[in-house]
């Protein structure tokens, strides 16, 4: 038995703004990442390998707000955050505020496996990357014209752009269960368009945007980062299962629909339980998401209905 789920961000997704052609591009990007992760699991690979591979592909896709397609900060930079967690050992690694790392999720894994630390930031994280043979890339690698135009619109006072419209979302993540029963979670993001220098959201925070524990589930979140941190969303879902006896579906729904809503937090989560059950819960208009379990057909969706 194996299962994997991925997301490409949650928020307000006006169908008119998305468009049929653009929607198909997003679906192809999700399908490619899902297939890559599934392929690893089908060959008996670990959930950690599958999660890192799926997230890496989403980081390479300029459609999503992670890696190459990351949004710009207020001063025109790209600052990237990522985290990964192994549910079999509760080991975790995270990086935040990096500006020259092609695949932050891979650096987060290196921090977990090859350092005495859990989180490294900025220049320190990049220095560690070099020590591990991970090359730096120029800032120009992350530049896309669309993301630059979005920053210009924000700076021009366009009130029609909220923090969670399609122009801003795209945090990516993956959760997986491997045939050996191992769970893993990973999340990567460029943050919020026009964010202040040094702002860090929930994605690299273990227990907020990312969490995995073989005793209950693996979770990756996307949405209003500050509120997801305050609500400790990923860990809360796991705790409700482990200590409260809730099902995965109930725990995810209660946290996203009740706890987050009470704090006026918008977004969603993907989660996988130790039995292979999958939950993809969101309180926004939509969430880019895809999943597959062994012996079943892949599911790809954006809105509530599909």
Question: How would you explain this protein's 3D organization?
Answer:
By secondary structure, the chain is an alpha+beta fold. It has one domain (3-303): Glutamine Phosphoribosylpyrophosphate, subunit 1, domain 1, CATH 3.60.20.30. The chain has helices at residues 15-18, 20-42, 47-60, 104-114, 122-131, 145-155, 225-231, 233-242, 248-262; strands at residues 3-11, 80-86, 91-98, 119-121, 172-177, 183-189, 210-213, 217-223, 267-273, 278-282, 286-293, 299-303. It has an eight-stranded mixed sheet with strand order 4-3-2-6-5-1-11-12. It has a four-stranded antiparallel sheet with strand order 7-8-9-10, covered by helices on one side. The protein is globular and about 50 Å long. The mean pLDDT is 94.
List the helices and strands and how they pair.
Blueprint lengths: L2 E9 L3 H4 L1 H23 L4 H14 L19 E7 L4 E8 L5 H11 L4 E3 H10 L13 H11 L16 E6 L5 E7 L20 E4 L3 E7 L1 H7 L1 H10 L5 H15 L4 E7 L4 E5 L3 E8 L5 E5 L3
Parallel strand pairs: 3-4
Antiparallel strand pairs: 1-5, 1-11, 2-3, 2-6, 5-6, 7-8, 8-9, 9-10, 11-12
Helix pairs in contact: 2-3, 3-4, 8-9
- Domain count: the total is 1
Shape: globular
Assign the CATH class.
Alpha Beta
Distance between the termini: 25 Å
> What would you say the CATH architecture is?
4-Layer Sandwich
Q: Which stretches of 5+ consecutive residues score pLDDT under 50?
A: none
CATH topology: Glutamine Phosphoribosylpyrophosphate, subunit 1, domain 1
CATH superfamily: (Glycosyl)asparaginase
Q: With helices defined by DSSP (H or I, 4 residues minimum), what is the helix count?
A: 9
Give the proportion of residues in helices: 25-40%
Question: What is the strand arrangement across the widest sheet?
Answer: 4-3-2-6-5-1-11-12
Strand content: 15-25%
Mean pLDDT: 94
Structural class: alpha+beta
Number of strands: 12
Largest sheet: 8 strands, mixed
């Amino acid at each position: 038995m194996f299962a994997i789920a991925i997301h490409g961000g949650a928020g307000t997704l006006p169908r008119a703004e998305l468009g049929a052609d653009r929607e198909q591009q997003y679906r192809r990007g999700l399908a490619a990442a899902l297939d890559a992760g599934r392929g690893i699991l089908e060959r008996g690979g670990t959930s950690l390998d599958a999660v890192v591979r799926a997230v890496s592909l989403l980081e390479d896709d300029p459609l999503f707000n992670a890696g190459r397609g990351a949004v710009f900060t207020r001063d025109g930079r790209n600052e990237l955050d990522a985290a990964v967690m192994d549910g079999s050992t509760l080991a975790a690694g995270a990086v935040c505020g990096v500006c020259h790392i092609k695949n932050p999720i891979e650096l987060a894994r290196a921090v977990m496996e090859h350092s005495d630390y859990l989180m490294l930031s900025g220049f320190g994280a990049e220095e560690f990357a070099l020590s591990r043979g991970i090359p730096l890339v120029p800032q120009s690698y992350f530049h896309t014209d669309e993301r630059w135009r979005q920053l210009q619109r924000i700076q021009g006072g366009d009130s029609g752009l909220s923090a969670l419209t399609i122009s801003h979302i795209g945090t990516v993540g993956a959760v997986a269960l491997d045939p050996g029963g191992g769970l893993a979670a990973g999340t990567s993001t460029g943050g919020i368009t026009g964010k202040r220098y040094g702002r860090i959201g929930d994605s690299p925070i273990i227990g907020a945007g990312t969490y995995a524990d073989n005793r209950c589930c693996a979770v990756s979140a996307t949405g209003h980062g500050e509120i997801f941190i305050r609500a400790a969303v990923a860990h809360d879902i796991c705790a409700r299962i482990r200590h409260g006896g809730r099902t995965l579906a109930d725990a995810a729904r209660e946290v996203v629909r009740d706890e987050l809503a009470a704090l006026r937090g918008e977004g969603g989560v993907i989660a996988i339980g130790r039995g292979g059950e999958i939950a993809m819960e969101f309180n926004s208009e939509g969430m880019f998401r895809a999943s597959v379990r062994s012996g079943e057909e892949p599911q790809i969706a954006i809105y509530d209905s599909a």
